[in-house]
Amino acid sequence: MGEQGVAHVWRKLRAIYNIEGNHCKTCDSYFFPPRLVCPNCRRKGQLEEHHFKGLGKVHTFAIVRQAPEGFKRQVPYIVAQVELDEGVRLTAQIVNCDPEDVEIGMRVRACFRKITEYGERGIIVYGYKFEPVLKVTGHPYP
Amino acid sequence: MVGIVGYGVYIPRYRIKTEEIARVWGDDGKRLAKGLGVFEKSVPGPDEEVATISVEAARNAVKYAGIDPKDIGAIYVGSESHPYAVKPTGTIVAEALSCTTDLTCADYEFACKAGTAAIQTTMGLVQSNMIKIGLAIGADTAQGRPGDALEYSAAAGGVAILVGMDNVVATIEATSSFTTDTPDFWRREGEDFPSHGARFTGEPAYFRHVGEGARLLMRKTGTTIDDFDYFVFHMPNGKFPLAMGRQLGVPKEKLEDSLVVRQIVNTYSGSAMMGLARVLDIAKPGDKIFMVSYGSGAGSDAFIIRVEKEILNHRGKVPTVDDFIARKTYIDYSEYAKYRRKIKALA
Q1: What residues 17-36 of chain A have any CB closer than 8 A to a CB of chain B?
Q2: CATH 3.40.190.150 describes domain B174-308
Q3: Which of A104, B39, B270, B305 could bridge to B289 as Cys pair (CB 3.0-4.6 Å)?
């Protein structure tokens, strides 16, 4: 069982580490996860790789209190649909935020977290989650 | 000259107070906190560990420096809590930064000084023109056996430092190390928690290595305490760096700004580097910093660092050490046990 998930996860690594999808130059649409063909333009589509900035807002959310195996340690946690600034929506956990503080429209940024692991002997899967944007003071030089 | 072109830090959001840990074990929390100089420590969330902390710190460093991650030619991650026993953390960092495949990478382990050992390695590679920019990371989610003294100090956090030759924000003028075989703290293969020599970790270990390391570099460079504006020593607790300063004759005000230990305690491989990052957050161009890290086992790495004018062009781009210290949520011992996998029945 140790090898479970290896090929499946490896194929998606770049996309889930950095939110890499694509952009169709013909219809100016963005896609995540990356598409092989633009569903709008079909053969006229011109897809290029796109590295999403990882900034967006909470479109909608749910609080998970009955978690599947492997996620029980995190209960209660927030799963949200996040709308990225480029217009794409994706499903992800919201971390660094208490369940009572999440709200629709809240600004979030992508962060790098452990998503799951294939048991104690299997591989660890990392990827994107989102967190409320952090205030930057930068200690301006007097 | 070789120096720091960018740095970034990451500290998890959760904190547990010394008094809360003491309450569970029937210790006098107030007395312990005052005696050790540790008041609350950072705790990683259930989905945070060295790979995630390293990536967050490294992304901040790249943003701060404004470099293309494709220019990074080497990544070394120093930690004693790598998520895999075999499989490097550095490759995860490389992929998450979108680096090229034309890069060398390895994980380091030397108790609390693996991060500064990584800085020295990248300095060598940069100065010999083998690479353009090197990334050195010190990060840990330190382990402490429940009920052991280490449980009060084993914290989590990480610092990433980009070392290069162009547009340096701080020049690394000199570095040297002091190394002996001293068994003051260790963790055997397959063990969950480290063991330590209790009072032995003081005089023959920390104080000898940090003190000798500092004196050695000052002797080599012909400098004295008066030549430096800031001092940074490894911070296993709040007491040791202050006592070290007294032994060496460092005025308290030159040490004060680096003491992040009071707010987050010991981030192990990230400890001295976190103190350095906090000083770099506030230092003025021309200021000189003297840093000595310490790793049990045992050794110390000393550095002389001069802050350059370039630093003024980079501030405000990423959160500072104080920004991360200010972002905190207190948890109690039961939540701490849940997050740190001390409840074994929970998958």
Answers
A1: 17-18
A2: no
A3: B305
